[in-house]
Amino acid sequence: MESILEKGLVVFLVLAGVVFVFSILYIVIKGTMEEKRRRARCTERVVAEVIHFTDVSFYERDEDRTYYKTAPVYEYSYKGELCRCTGSTSSSWRKKKPDGAHVDLWVDPDNPRSYICPEEERNNILQAIKWICIFVGAVLLFILGIYLTAAYINGLSEF
User: Fold this and answer.
1) What mean pLDDT, rounded, does the chain reach?
2) Highest mean pLDDT among 19-28, 58-67, 98-107
3) Are 106 and 119 in contact (CB under 8 A)?
4) Minimal CA–CA distance to 147: which of 135, 155, 158, 137?
């Protein structure tokens, strides 16, 4: 009976791992394709000023909870049009680019309010790597816990 449970657990973990890997690949590929399209459109360089930071809220319907983060507000001029846009970085970025700092943006000539900020992207990549490491560590701890529990149970059954 224990052998069947152990095999079932191994099969489950392998299938869960395969689903996880394919899910991550799908997210990465989809994001990369969308980013390439956006980069192809945003071709004009402008220098924007961080005029202030604002609180941005996100409502999570499944949890019925609102999350907040602090994001920079950029102001720049493109072909005589004054634009203000809210960035997408976390509050930790505020130390690097305080109010009044200048940032290079790449804007879409057809829609100057659509932009790419290379510095924000670097910050977002570092944040993503941090969360992936935390997630992988949690998964490894979970697997280690299952292994140690199984070893402990097997050790008890020998007596």
Assistant:
1) 81
2) 98-107
3) no
4) 155
Is 19 strand, coil or helix?
helix
Report the amino acid identity of residue 30: K
Euclidean distance between CA atoms 39 and 89, whole angstroms:
18
For residue 79 the two structure tokens come to: 């072909």
Q: Where are the beta strands (DSSP E) in the chain?
A: 44-60, 65-78, 81-86, 102-108, 111-116
Per-range mean pLDDT, top range of 68-72, 75-79, 128-132: 75-79
Give, to the nearest 10 degrees, the angle between helix 118-157 and helix 2-41: 180
CA dihedral 145, 28, 18, 129 (to 10 degrees): -20
pTM, rounded to two decimals? 0.58
Determine how β-strand 65-78 pairs with β-strand 44-60.
antiparallel
Check residue 107 and give its pLDDT.
93
Helix, strand, coil shares of the chain as percentages rounded to 5? 55, 30, 15
Query: What distance in Å separates the CA atoms of residue 3 and residue 52, rounded to the nearest whole number?
Result: 62
